[in-house]
Amino acid sequence: MGKNSEKLYVTQSEWSGEKGQHLRSKGAFNHLANAEAGFKPLPFDCCALSLAPFENPVTVKETGTVYDLINILPYLKKYHSNPASGNPLSVKDLIKLHYHKNATGDYYDPVTFKTFNEHTHIVAIATSGNVFSFDAVDKLNIKAKFWEDLLTGQPFTKADIITLQDPRNPRNQNELEFIKNRKLVSDKEAEEVLNDPLGMINVNATGGASTLLKKISDKQNEDKEANDGQVVDKSHLGKAPEYFPKTGKEPASGSLTGVKAYNAAKYSTGRTAASFTSTVLDPQSRNEAALIDEDELMFQEVEKLAGARGKDKAKGKAYARIVTNHGSLNVELHCEKAPKTCYNWLMLARGGKYDNVSFHRNIPGFMIQGGDPTGTGRGGESFYGNPFGDEYDRKGSYKHDARGVLAMANAGPSTNTSQFFITYRATPHLDGKHTVFGHLVGGMDTLAALESIQVDKATSRPMRTIKMESIQIFSDPFEEYKTRLAQRMKRERGDYADDERKARMKADRENNRTTWWVLLRMKCPINDNRFGTNLGEKQTRAQPAIKDGDNMKELLGGTGGGGVGKYLSLKRPANPDAGVPSKKKKDKSGFGDFSSW
After folding, report:
1. What is the spatial distance between Cα 523 and Cα 188, in angstroms, rounded to a whole number?
2. Assigned domain for 248 exists
3. How far apart are CA 526 and CA 517, in angstroms?
4. Is the model's pTM score more than 0.90?
5. Which residues are catalytic?
6. Contact 74/189 with Cβ under 8 angstroms?
7. Both 274 and 316 in a single domain?
8. I want to staple 418 with a disulfide (CB 3.0 to 4.6 A). Which of 80, 146, 380, 537 is the partner?
9. What's this protein's family per the entry (predicted)?
10. Cα 105 to Cα 449: distance, rounded to the nearest angstrom
């Protein structure tokens, strides 16, 4: 039989868990237990105080918790304790950590080259601050009983090994002392410390962070001397970035109302519409042309050479010579089909990035690969700084269809850097995976010599050194484009000094017009220095008008002087209001060519 006390609703005791045998309350307890047991640990590259990625990581030997230096300093000034354990802590106890990054920007072990992740057991050496994986330290230090740092050779003991992350024993962030006791630092207190981070620190004290703090002190002293006592405006530090900066009275370089930039697009930036539809932006009534990226505009111009024929067909190609220690390889680059890839390769070659770089991988019957400055196959950086995209999906792109094809090596889609390879045969299975940007036009005998060099079958590394001594560039359409652009800009912009000189000469011609008819009427020699060639200034309102009683000698220069008046008659007409005499017939003789003068 059913119980009379069975309710059709959840009672207060069931909600509170006072009687834990009830199914509803038991489920609630299970949910809380699972939430506590399934917590997610803090990522290894984040500060335990700010929960954000660190820039200047430091740690404490006691707990191994990682902090950012700019976050731990305000906390130590206020509480003088370890945020993780609550034990007393000073700045000299901080240990500066030295993380290492690979070519892709990921943290990794500098000995085993394995990338760190949430499953890696990470440790640090207290004496040097270098960060390694525990596997490397365990095999090369602990088991081998070799108690020296693997990078610097500094001696250490087993007690100097600090565990930063242990995936088998993760730390619960909620159990840290500063979270349980809510030890917080206000923004004002943090700002005061950051404005003067060395006010509480003895930079001469010994400790892992002393070197870093000494550098900060020296940098502040240099800035103080450079400012020479001037007050530095720091009001911009706490402001959000202005995505649409205010426009002044002068039009911008890309303005539709001013002088257009060479890379100005046919469409505007859209700021005018955005300013009228958003209350955040200041109203703007002038359209500004959007600016196309300079490199993208250059690539578009070079791509237009793809349809050229005859002599202009070679304008879209680049030609270079790879000088190796076994001979030379002449290559032709398809700049019109893979402009971004070719420009990256040419700029790296011009910068000497390929000089004395070895080919680290050689597989006879397949290809030879190089371009990694580290020689490991895991390094290299593009000219753009970051890996760039593939160009094998363009219309008319070249394929791996012959021996001597030049293509980019990558670690996956859109991961091109500086490494490239040259094929020993047609490799159609690489189409759609690697960008072909050139092929050999000379040096096939050198390529055959490279293929015949013995290699290590386990690593495909050649037994004899194969390196690029230098790269000589004979033709480059990108440099030709830059030259044409500079000439066009010079024509459009003009030489300012020359324009000023032309304007001055034009003004002089307007002001120094020779009055030939006056010279002829006055029967004055042309080279008479008493008679100027400048026309008289226009009479202004301030000058008095000539009246009947005025002395004409004084007005026209007087007698005996060098003025114009000495050549004019001083007699005034008897009747000023007399009619104008009839116009005489014009003489057809004219001045001619002045040969009769």
Report:
1. 92
2. no
3. 11
4. no
5. 361, 366, 369, 410, 421, 430, 434
6. yes
7. no
8. 380
9. Belongs to the cyclophilin-type PPIase family. PPIL2 subfamily.
10. 37
- Rounded (10°) CA dihedral 503, 508, 509, 511: 130
Q: Indicate the residue among 483, 516, 546 that finishes a domain.
A: 483
How far apart are alpha carbons 596 and 344 in whole angstroms? 74
- Containing structural domain, residue 460: 300-483
Give the pLDDT score at 293: 75
Average pLDDT of the residues of the chain = 76
Residues 228/259, Cβ–Cβ less than 8 Å: no
Say if residue 177 is in the same domain as residue 63: yes
Domain limit, last residue, from 427, 449, 483 = 483
Q: Are residues 133 and 159 in the same domain?
A: yes
Q: Domain count of the chain?
A: 3
d(CA 29, CA 10): 15
Does residue 32 sit within a domain?
no
Q: How many residues does the chain have?
A: 597
SS3 81: strand
* Contact predicate 107/101, CB 8 Å: yes
Residue among 231, 207, 121 at smallest CA distance from 167: 121
Backbone torsions φ then ψ of 485, nearest 5 degrees: -65, -40
| Cα radius of gyration rounded to whole Å, the chain | 42
453-475: per-residue pLDDT in tens? 999 988 899 999 999 999 999 99
Contact by Cβ (8 Å): 288, 253: no
